[in-house]
Amino acid sequence: MNDFLQSHSTKLLGSMPVVKSFEGRLASLNDWWGKITLIGKINSHNVATTILDDMSRTQLKFGELQKQLTHNLLVENVQKLVLDNSSKAQVAIDLLIRNLFERTADVGFLATDDDIRVFLGSANVSTEQTQFIENRLREYVKKYSVYDEIIVFDTQGNVKAHLDKANPISYSNDPLLAATLKSDQDYLETFRYSDLQSERRHSLIYSCKITQTDDKSSPVLGVLCLCFRFDDEMHSIFDGLLMSGDIGVLAIIDRDGQVIASSNEHLLPLNTGFKGDAGLRMLNYRRQDYIVNMRSTNGYQGFYGLGWRGQMMTGLGMAFVREERQLSRNSYTEIMHQASSFPQELREIHQASSDINTDLGLLVLNGQIASARKNATEFMPVLEAIRQIGSDITAIFNASVKSLQEVTVMSSHLNNAGFLASLAVDIMDRNLYERANDCRWWALTSAFRRGLTNAELSFTEARQISEILQYINALYTVYTNLYLYDSQGRILAVSSPQYQMLVGVKLDESTGATEALKHSDSQHYTVSAFDKTHLYGNRHTYIYNAAITDLEDPRKVLGGIGIVFDSEPQFESMLNDVLPRDKQGKVLAGCFGVFAQRNKTIIAVANNPALKVGDTLDVDAAFLGLKTGHRSSEVIQLNGTSYIFGVAVSKGYREYKVQDGYRNDVIAMVFIPF
Q1: What's the pLDDT at 328?
Q2: What torsion, rounded to 10 degrees, do the Cα atoms 263, 269, 275, 279 define?
Q3: Closest Cα to residue 297, out of 230, 242, 252, 231?
Q4: Helix (H) / strand (E) containing 558
Q5: Least confident of 402-406, 541-545, 623-627
Q6: How far apart are CA 559 and CA 449, in angstroms?
Q7: Disulfide-capable partner of 668 in 216, 421, 493, 515 (CB 3.0 to 4.6 Å)?
Q8: Element (H, E) at 527
Q9: Which residues touch 592 (CB under 8 Å, ≥6 apart)?
């Protein structure tokens, strides 16, 4: 940051209207001061020259202070822009990587689907079998709507089944197929143009071998390819991060420095090349200077993807043009001086300008006394004019410091707090979207549907179902338990041995099972209220449910599946991930985050042991009444401490909480000590 400021200070200052205005007004006053002093020297021989010399020295002090304030205007304005832009670049790549992490589990799990294995292992595949598999793939994409194509290949590259009938593919010799067949990895991730989607400019493909059994050394039957809706996902991320009127361009850069996604392809087309590592720099692009922030991903649970980076670039000419608008209903002038985050240099400048003006007032008073003694009345207007100029200069300093306080420093902190709260609840929505998908897809497992056709499960059937549940739970560790229940809501099998005692227990309405059993639609799911449950050790959580229907008659409900989300560590981790950190990566002292319901009941808390899940949080009810998808920020008092407070209400992700009939507004709150 310091190197950037030193290298580009002239350009940066020249692009700041606030600095230009500040320097122009002071230059005008200094010029006037010089003229008045000259008039005084010419017309007031009776007054000691030391008075004018002292006033000139005072003028020089103001000049030195001006340099300090100009430097602070530069630093704080650049820091605000860098914080905003680097946050957007970081979040863009990290949100994408979080999403793609889920895809790595999807492809591995779907490749072990028994129906697909049977289909590929058949010597003579009928049209009905192909239709069955393609309908199954269609059901998958109806749940996991992040995919626009799924292709099942045999080992020779022949397409045996696929989803997108507008895609003219029957065979592929794309090297990724051979690479997947040879690989010992759980999956391969490929991003480029591919004949798998020949009419697309690029594809993001997750591929995995399909083997005869779960034993990786068993015979290979083919390859499964999941094609991710990359452009669609990037539009969603960009739209969520860029505010209306945002002049910056957000992009994803691959490991070779090429743009692979851009929020403004007209200005920044795909395949534009950028050299250099992640960081902050000034770049001349298309004959204009841009401030560029590039960030590497933090990764997610050890997954870093293909080495992509997020980048935000803002044209220098408009980077520091801002609307002078009221930040909120409050004025922060008084409390800013109490803030530990308020720069000490600005406090000192504010105090120094007042001290210099006080000294000038004393000089003027001494000059007036001396003039009266020597009957030099012609010097009185000169003294009064200089006194007024000093007062005007001090007013400009105070206004500039206030502008830095409220419009730059304070707005930066407030915007950041609101942004972090919005990010936290967006991460939550994206995570729980996957949970709604999981329960509905697993409910379509053929082994479950066949097993539940019997009035009573045999010992062998119960063990087989339990083994499948255990296998799933081992892959998807965000759940403490998965269980199957019959049409009466009686638990038949569980994934976790520690919950074996639940077998035979009838589920009550609070689990969501009763409502799930009423709906045969494969897209329907239910979610319990966020309450304490014996299914989660008498702690608070969400339970997702979906009905299991008959294979022959999908309108007939045979039972259901319940998946118990491990809410405590998962939600706490989401909140911890967004809390501001110091240069060592530690959460700033006193910061904490909260997920809450609209009735102020705490869903989760991070970094504040004094608050517990289920407690009521004492914040202004107005914040809990924000509209869905909205965010706000303010300085508030909580338990005697001042906080910069960011709050945001969930808005859902894709169809989740938007078009699927489920409504559950969650409020994310971030508290940063003031």
Answers
A1: 46
A2: -10
A3: 252
A4: strand 557-565
A5: 402-406
A6: 9
A7: 421
A8: strand 526-527
A9: 579, 605, 606, 607, 608, 611, 670, 671
Alpha carbons 614 and 542: distance in angstroms, whole number: 13
Three-point CA angle 69, 17, 403, nearest 5°: 50
DSSP 520: -
Whether the Cβ atoms of residue 254 and residue 306 lie closer than 8 Å to each other: yes
Closest-CA residue to 309 (of 90, 488, 125): 90
Do 506 and 530 form a contact (C-beta atoms < 8 A)? no
Cβ neighbours of residue 460 closer than 8 Å, sequence gap 6 or more:
none
Please report the beta strands in 134-193, taking only residues with DSSP state E, as ranges in sequence order. Answer: 147-154, 159-162, 188-192
Which pLDDT does position 505 carry in this prediction?
96
Of the candidates 504, 534, 530, 529, the one whose C-alpha atom is nearest the C-alpha of residue 515 is 529
The phi and psi torsions of 259 (rounded to 5 degrees) equal: -70, 125
Type of residue numbered 53: D
Side chain identity, residue 485: Y
Burial class (CB in 10 A: 0-12, 13-18, 19+), 92: buried
Q: Which residues of 256-265 are buried (b: 16+ CB within 10 A; e: fewer)?
A: eeebbbbbee
For residue 399, give every residue at least 6 positions away whose Cβ sits within 8 Å of its Cβ, in sequence order, or none.
none
Sign of CA dihedral 133, 136, 138, 144: negative
Contact 434, 657 (CB under 8 A): no
According to DSSP, residue 407 is labeled: I
Provide the token pair at 356: 């210099």
Q: How many residues in the chain?
A: 674
Number of neighbours of residue 130 by Cβ within 10 angstroms: 15
- Whether the CB-CB separation of 11 and 289 falls below 8 Å is answered with yes
> Quick one: pLDDT at residue 360?
66
Region 378-403: mean pLDDT is 74
Please give the Cα distance from 402 to 335 (Å, whole number): 12
Paired residues of 635 in beta bridges: 644
Q: Is 611 helix (H, G, I), strand (E, B) or coil?
A: coil
Tell me the three state secondary structure of residue 157: coil
Instruction: Please give the structure tokens belonging to residue 353.
Output: 């300008």
d(CA 439, CA 485): 13
Per-residue pLDDT, averaged over 621-633, amounts to 92
Q: Distance (Å, rounded) from C-alpha 261 to C-alpha 547? A: 39
Average pLDDT of the residues in 383-397: 76
Which helix (H) or strand (E) element contains residue 150?
strand 147-154
> Cβ–Cβ contacts within 10 Å for residue 133, how many?
23
pLDDT, one tens digit per residue, over 657-672 is 999 999 999 999 999 9
Query: What average pLDDT does this structure show over 322-326?
Result: 50
Q: How far apart are the first and last CA of the chain?
A: 24
Rg from Cα positions in the chain = 33
Residue 372: what pLDDT?
Answer: 61
Average of pLDDT values for 304-326?
83
- Asked if residue 565 lies in contact with residue 511, where contact means CB atoms within 8 angstroms, the answer is no
What are the distances in angstroms from CA 95 to CA 236, 296, 309, 316? 11, 12, 11, 27
What's CA 627's distance to the chain center, in Å? 19
CA-wise closest residue to 479 among 568, 593, 560 = 568
DSSP bridge pairs for 228:
147, 204
CA dist list (Å): 480 to 20, 270, 476: 60, 43, 9
Average pLDDT over residues 226-254: 93
At residue 321, the 3 state secondary structure works out as coil
pLDDT digits (tens, 9 = 90+) for 475-525: 899 999 999 999 999 999 999 999 999 999 999 999 999 999 999 999 999
Based on the number of CB atoms within 10 Å of its own CB, is 639 exposed (0-12), middle (13-18) or buried (19 or more)?
exposed
Query: Quick one: pLDDT at residue 343?
Result: 66
Distance (Å, rounded) from C-alpha 113 to C-alpha 135? 14
